[in-house]
């Protein structure tokens, strides 16, 4: 599509930006970045995930600047990301190293290591809590003291426990196919634009940074019949993953001499999807495959929806939109979709004028004939 | 102590430990700043557990610093915006690379700090275990 430049409006634009600031400041309340950081964790997680940049502090700043608009906050983070140099690539992160804080299975009630609810809203009443209107700092401090006193009695084991993957046990039983470690370098859609058919690594990269609402909607569409994947959630886990980086110059590849640089918090999901396959006797058999989902922070709905879409895209089916990789991957990016929709607000005078001229010509022609 | 273990201890424990080690070095040795603490990105490579392949989950903001001591370059990298800690980590890294005598004294302190980190984590995990659930299926 060709664009035609327009000019003018400098003073109005300056006044508009001033007005924007006025709208943010007029009620004379200041929201501290640290307050957002401490109290808006779900929003921060969502912004980090969709912007593909893990930095809780910057996400809180973006939310403040964007006045809570998710699309604007993600846009700000993506823009900021583009100003920073990529200094390192991490060593491969293996999810078994996760320090788990929540781990549940909807498929098996007795999973090895047990189920851990952690912090979840799943079992809360969805009723407005009017007490929060008059929340008091001293009351909160008292509650925290009482809670910590209650926990003081808990006895810790000598070592931290790491949880095995549910799917590993099922693989040992021969219920799932075993795959050797594939160490092929992944594609990077931030360095090279998406090509179709997309590699598995590119698909997962696009899905994990997809807009939460879009990923959820398309995953939901698959469940409702616009796709053919309806999984059982095998395992949802939330926790911290340690990140290691190799020395940039040392020739010796010694794992023990890597840098530990910190950790990131993620949600990871493995969904079990029944598929029908033909056996050696050409008979139909039921098997299970795994749909994989992961995203920054705690966002279980998105990670589950991603695991559905992962399976959909592994099995292309022309009749279902959620199995079409171009349809899914090109429409779930926050900046791409909101940017393209919102560009419609900007001046399109020449393109519209040419369409108007065509319509007038047709209408005028009709009049002449009458 | 090798880098992986010591960087984990220094980053996970109170930042005063890294500061005290770094100050000990800068008081006794000439330390030249090669790269002042700067913000950058580290791309995270993940292994997915469906087909055991690799993909990029996204980037993490890091602070990086480089210093030189006795012709040895030390690097400090840490997640987040942590200028001071990145610089201290770089100084400690250079001290280890240069085999400075001070590093000999650090092992016991690092081991104690590691023990504290492990105890803290184990206690946090025990607290979380209060939310362990045992669902039972009901006959209907």
UniProtKB/TrEMBL annotation, chain A:
It comes from the Bacteria. InterPro entries: PhnI. One of its GO terms (molecular function) is lyase activity. The keyword Lyase applies. Pfam families: PhnI (PF05861). One of its GO terms (biological process) is organic phosphonate metabolic process. Keywords: Lyase. This is Carbon-phosphorus lyase.
From TrEMBL, chain B:
The keyword Cell division does not apply. GO terms for biological process: organic phosphonate metabolic process; organic phosphonate transport. The keyword Membrane does not apply. It comes from the Bacteria. One of its GO terms (molecular function) is lyase activity. It holds the Pfam family PhnG. InterPro entries: Phosphonate_metab_PhnG. This is Phosphonate C-P lyase system protein PhnG. The gene is phnG.
């Amino acid at each position: 599509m060709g664009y035609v430049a327009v000019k003018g409006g400098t003073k109005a634009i300056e006044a508009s930006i001033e007005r924007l600031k006025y709208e943010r400041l007029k009620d004379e309340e200041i929201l501290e970045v640290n307050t957002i950081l401490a109290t808006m964790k779900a929003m921060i997680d969502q912004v980090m995930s969709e912007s593909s940049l893990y930095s809780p502090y910057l996400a809180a700043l973006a939310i403040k600047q964007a006045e809570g608009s998710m699309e604007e906050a993600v846009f700000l983070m993506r823009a900021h990301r583009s100003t920073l140099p990529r200094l390192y690539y991490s060593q491969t992160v293996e999810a078994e190293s996760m320090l788990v804080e929540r781990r549940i299975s909807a498929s098996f009630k007795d999973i090895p290591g047990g189920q851990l609810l952690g912090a979840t809203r799943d079992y809360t009443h969805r009723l407005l809590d009017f007490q929060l209107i008059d929340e008091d700092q001293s009351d909160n401090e008292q509650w925290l003291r009482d809670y910590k006193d209650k926990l003081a009695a808990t006895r810790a084991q000598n070592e931290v426990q790491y949880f095995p993957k549910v799917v590993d046990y099922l693989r040992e039983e021969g219920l799932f196919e075993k795959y050797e470690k594939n160490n092929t370098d992944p594609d990077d859609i931030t360095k090279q634009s998406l090509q179709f058919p997309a590699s598995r690594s590119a698909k997962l990269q696009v899905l994990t940074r997809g807009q939460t609402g879009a990923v959820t909607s398309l995953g939901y569409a698959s469940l409702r019949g616009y796709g053919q994947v309806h999984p059982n959630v095998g395992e949802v886990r939330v926790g911290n993953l340690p990140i290691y980086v190799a020395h940039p110059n040392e020739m010796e590849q010694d794992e023990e001499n890597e840098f530990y640089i910190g950790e990131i918090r993620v949600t990871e999901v493995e969904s079990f999807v029944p598929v029908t396959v033909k056996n050696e006797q050409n008979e139909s058999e039921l098997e299970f495959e795994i749909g994989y989902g992961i995203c920054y922070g705690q966002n279980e709905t998105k990670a589950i929806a991603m695991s559905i879409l992962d399976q959909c895209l592994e099995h292309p089916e022309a009749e279902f939109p959620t199995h079409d990789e171009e349809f899914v991957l090109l429409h779930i990016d926050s900046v791409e979709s909101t940017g393209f929709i919102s560009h419609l607000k900007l001046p399109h005078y020449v393109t519209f004028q040419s369409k108007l001229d065509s319509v007038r010509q047709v209408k005028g022609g009709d009049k002449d004939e009458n | 102590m090798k880098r992986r273990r010591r960087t984990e201890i220094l980053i996970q424990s109170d930042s005063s430990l890294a500061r005290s080690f770094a100050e000990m070095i800068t008081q006794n040795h000439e330390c030249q700043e090669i790269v002042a603490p700067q913000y950058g990105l580290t791309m995270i490579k993940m292994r997915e557990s469906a087909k055991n392949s690799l993909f990029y989950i996204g980037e993490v903001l890091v602070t990086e610093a480089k210093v030189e001591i006795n012709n040895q370059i030390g690097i400090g990298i840490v997640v987040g915006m942590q200028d001071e800690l990145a610089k201290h980590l770089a100084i400690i890294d250079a001290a280890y690379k240069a085999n400075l005598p001070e590093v000999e004294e650090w092992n016991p302190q690092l081991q104690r700090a590691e023990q504290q980190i492990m105890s803290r984590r184990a206690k946090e995990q025990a607290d979380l275990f209060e939310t362990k659930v045992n669902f039972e299926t009901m006959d209907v």
